[in-house]
Amino acid sequence: MTLLSYDRYCDEILAQIDALRATLQGADLTATVPTCPDWTLRQLAVHVGGAHRWVGEIVRGRATEDIPEEKVPGAAGPGSDDPAALDAWLAEGAAATVEALREAGPDTEVWTWAWERRTAFWARRMTHETVVHRADAALAARVPYTVDPEVAADTIDEWLRIVSFAQEGGDPEADELRGGGRSLHLHATDVPGAEWLIEFGEDRFTWRHDHEKATVALRGSLTDLMLVFNRRLEPGSERVEVFGDAELLDFWLDRSSFG
């Protein structure tokens, strides 16, 4: 698996926000989101749109440090509870952020919270932020959810990098993902070559794209693997299969949740 192009990430931010907006059409915006139970569907949408505006502000201003959310114009949501206002607010925020990303290009130096201080980081991060929260919205609205295989695979790749970064930074939960010579295999049944082998070393975990026997294996469609890996689908779901030490999969999911 390889990174998507910068232009593709920019395109995907727009495509994913359009799909999220379609999910919200006619939905009960007061409904609780099962996978984010502290939020209603409207609050979830405002979180996504606020994140887009925050990143847009960072990129436009070539920020060298974090920008508090309260200093980002419009980040708190539309001024009306009208669903049409929320829809327009989501579309406008994503469009403005993508415009800023395209104008800056992938290599402009900006503040990020992670391993890479370039605009390329934010294009990828906002793609997958929207992909995963669109799944939350689909669950709350009880509508079907699909995602392009390349995007789903890259969502898994990016999450592995985030968990690795957390481990390198001393996160106490991620730090436990090591030792014992154990391994976890993800195997997509619908996309040839979409496989991951995660190995627990003495000091840290590593991963590679490979087919190899592991302590525990998770098999299913690529979208469902991505959803399980992001804790949006239970590993006990009939949509996926778990072979081997299921407790190790639970151990991984518990310690890569970051609260």
TrEMBL record:
Family annotation (InterPro entries): DinB/YfiT-like, Maleyloyr_isom, MDMPI_C-term_domain, MDMPI_metal-binding
A molecular function (GO) term: metal ion binding
GO cellular component: plasma membrane
Domain Mycothiol-dependent maleylpyruvate isomerase metal-binding: 11-138
Keywords: Isomerase, Pyruvate
Top-level division of the source organism's lineage: Bacteria
Domain MDMPI C-terminal as annotated: residue spans: 150-250
Xref: PANTHER family: CONSERVED PROTEIN
Designated name of the protein: Maleylpyruvate isomerase family mycothiol-dependent enzyme
